[in-house]
Design brief:
The chain is an alpha/beta fold. 29% of the residues lie in helices and 23% in strands. The strands form four sheets. Strands 1, 2, 3, 4, 5, 19, 20, 21 and 22 form a nine-stranded mixed sheet that branches. The longest helix is centred in the middle third of the chain and has 16 residues. The protein is globular and about 70 Å long. The two termini are 43 Å apart. The protein binds zinc ion. Zinc ion binds next to loops.
Length: 485
């Protein structure tokens, strides 16, 4: 009799490649998938009855701000509860490392106050993560705004050659220590003055290290085509793959323009490696800034340092109670965070359904009243958009959150259910899976996730963390395939 560590019995395998589902048992040994098929005679230390459940690769959250959550809340409940087994950290130009700073400007404060920015090198951050592992795996980007804040005395100008050299050195250190690439957030004040030339000069070590370039672009509204062009040019000059983060069209004037931007992206993908991620909601969330308020139909305060009592309230109510206009109220309660209803549902659907779109939550785990995407993203795609709205089939939905991001981020041996692959798995009920988090009640775990398994160890089961901490730091492994990207 063959003996395994774990057997998942009687489930329906959806393997992450887009291939049709198939009934099969799945056996795990030594953290890897050891066998798939009829395994009636197999014995295991642990068996899970998967009858009625889908056995899928664990979901890869392609866009997170979980740098600090990995250390602070290692059970990673907001993500483990959704079936996520790997988080990509350090997005939008902001990463916890490398930076030592007592005080940080917005939006760096979204992931930590000064006390959390205590890693002089990326290696120091990785070593602390490895010394106290989390439940889930992480693949980490280095933030260009973090490099700027740690290198430049003033941020409202392009970097000097000496500053570029210093930032380039910090990026090279990080890549050598296991970072998978560079992120930028030229939309945000700390990097708004950075030119494409600066980013290309700082990012010079990426190509040799096999890193990639992810960007919260300079503009997601009126000037989005110019922002896409800048992004493609930077990727092309760097000679590395590009990830367009949380693709969206913000502001009523731009509603419907995803037809235009997706055509531009599809055309560009024939010439250089480009991909994108998206979250399944029509509201965005980031720092509160007066200049964005006019673009939104509704604004909800997610946190405020000066007025914590306003978290969860509509900015319109806050403005009324302060006797101010919306923009003055936003100024009055900063530093703060907000949810902005700025997108069109038809754009969200078109972008989600685009074949190259990966799923990324963009959740903000330290907000007092976070956007529901933090706890709801993956079950919302599988339940609401796939099952209920029939936007795409279940195999395609799973591919967008597993095989596709594993290939694009170079997470070799993950994102698929295949013999020899890492046993990162999610068991869910396709009939009941649903997001429960709402804008009014944003911290509710999703329903329908039976188990989340990382490297063969069950980290979440029946609505609760198990206490297992098998997470590891993943490196990017680039294959020689010419189709890569
Ligand atoms: Zn962003």
């Amino acid at each position: 009799l063959l003996s395994y560590d774990l057997v998942l019995r009687g489930g329906t395998v959806i393997d992450g490649t887009g291939a049709p589902r198939a009934a099969a048992d799945v056996a795990v040994s030594g953290g890897r998938i050891a066998a798939i098929g009829r395994l009636d005679g197999a014995r295991a230390e642990c068996e899970i009855d998967a009858a009625g459940l889908v056995v899928a690769p664990g979901f890869i959250d392609a866009h997170t701000h979980d740098d600090r959550l990995l250390l602070e809340s290692p059970d990673m409940a907001p993500k483990a509860s959704q079936g996520v087994t790997t988080v990509v950290t350090g997005n939008c130009g902001i990463s916890l490392a490398p930076l030592v700073a007592a005080d940080v400007p917005a939006p760096l404060d979204l992931i930590g106050d000064g006390g959390w920015y205590r890693f002089p090198t990326f290696r120091a951050y990785r070593e602390e993560c490895e010394a106290r592992p989390a439940a889930l795996n992480a693949a980490a980007l280095v933030g260009h705004s973090t490099l700027r804040v740690g290198t430049m005395a003033t941020l409202d100008r392009p970097a000097t050659p000496a500053e570029i050299g210093a930032m380039r050195g910090k990026l090279a250190e990080a890549l050598a220590a296991g970072a998978i690439g560079l992120s930028t957030g030229t939309f945000y004040p700390p990097a708004r003055a950075a030119t494409a030339d600066e980013i290309v000069a700082v990012g010079e070590p990426l190509a040799a290290a096999g890193g990639l370039y992810c960007t919260h672009m300079r503009d997601e509204g009126d000037r989005i085509v110019e922002a896409l062009d800048e992004t493609f040019a930077i990727g092309s000059r760097l000679g590395v793959p590009v990830v367009v983060s949380h693709h969206k069209l913000a502001g009523r004037r731009n509603h419907g323009r995803s037809a235009e931007t997706l055509a531009i992206l599809a055309e560009r993908m024939r010439r250089q490696p480009v991909c994108l991620d998206c979250y399944p909601y029509r509201a965005s969330s980031t720092m509160l800034s007066a200049e964005r308020v006019g673009q939104a139909e509704r604004v909800i305060v997610t946190w405020s340092k000066t007025r914590p009592d306003f978290a969860g309230r509509d900015l319109a109510d806050v403005a009324k109670s302060l006797g101010l206009g919306l923009e003055a109220a936003a100024e009055a309660i900063r530093p703060a965070g907000a949810i902005y209803f700025v997108m069109d549902e038809a754009d969200v659907r078109r972008i989600l359904a685009f074949p190259e779109t990966m799923i990324g939550s963009d959740g903000l785990p330290h907000d007092a009243r976070p956007h529901p995407r933090l706890w709801g993203t993956f079950p919302r795609v599988l339940g609401h958009y796939c099952r209920d709205e029939r936007l795409f089939g279940l195999e395609e939905a799973v591919r967008k959150m597993t095989g596709l991001p594993a290939a694009r981020f170079g997470l070799a041996g993950r994102g698929v259910v295949a013999v020899g692959a890492a046993a990162d798995l999610c068991l869910f009920d396709p009939a009941t899976i649903a997001d429960a988090a709402t804008f009014d009640d944003p911290d509710r775990p999703a329903t329908g996730i039976a188990a989340t398994i990382v490297s063969g160890r069950v980290v979440w089961r029946n609505g609760a963390p198990t206490g297992e901490r098998p997470g590891r730091f993943l490196r990017r492994e680039v294959t020689a395939s010419p189709a890569a990207g």
